[in-house]
Structures are given as C-alpha cells and as structure tokens.
Amino acid sequence: MGSHATATFLSWAGKDRRLKASLLDRLEPHLKTLPGVKFTWWEMSHIQIGEAWRRDILARIDESDAILQLLSPNFFASDFIVQEEIPACIGPEAPKRALPVGLKPFPLDPKRRLLQGVNEHQIFRLGDKFYSECSATEKDRFALELANAIQDSLTGKSPWRKL
User: Which of 34, 52, 74, 99 lies in disulfide reach of 13, CB 3.0 to 4.6 Å?
Assistant: First the structure.
C-alpha cells in the first residue's frame, strides 16, 4: 500500500498549551507509525520571532489538507480561531477537512451559535469523555484511538468511527 502524504494544521487555543502538549506527547508516536499515512503538521508555535504570524497561519491553513481542531472553551473564546480558522474547514464552501477533537469539555448544545457549526461534525472523544477528563491510562487510549481515527479519515477508509 502506498503512503498518503498529508499536511495538517493544528488549531488550538494558547491557554490550552499544557493539555495540547500532553495530548501530542501521547499522539505523536502513533502518528509516526500510521500505515498508509505520512503525517506532518504545522501549528502557531512554529512561528519564529519577527515573522508575520497572521499571514503565516493563514498561508499554512491554505496549504494544509486538514485541520486538527483541539476543542475547548478557550478555543471558542479566541476571536482569531472563530473568525479565521474555523471558516476554513467548516461549512458547505470550506475546502479543508475538519478533524475536531474534544480536548476540554464545552456545551454541545446544537443551538449555540458560539460553536460556529463545529458541533455539527463528529467530535472525537473517548466514549463521552473529553481528553482532559481521562485518567492517564485513558489518555494513552485516547491518543491511540485518535491516531486510528485520523488514519481512517485521511485515507478515506471510513469517516470517524464511533468509539
């Protein structure tokens, strides 16, 4: 089987830095070994001092095949995420594939406009648990299952499978 190269933009709120780091520490080893997928990503922490951050973020989103969204109350409180990043992958005209991940609990009420349509997509969680609600062992399983779901989604095997 050939390898499917995919560039993915990692969208997350700066206030969730510790949770993001915890998830990525568990997730990255699995992503490196995904059969059929050569997974690379870019995130705002890759911006160097003096670079035009807004232009760089929008250019990287445009170059990416998918956007991995680490959802939390802080994510939805960010004006830049809500106004720039979410529209790039949510909605009928959006050219990007949204890969929403439940990082920290937030209300999933479909009537909430603050969610910008993200709640209309299958959000990855471990059962009903957001990443921050998981024990250490569950966090390891969360990362493994997320890697499998990313592989399925990016290779076209299946949509996000229900866990």
Answer: 74
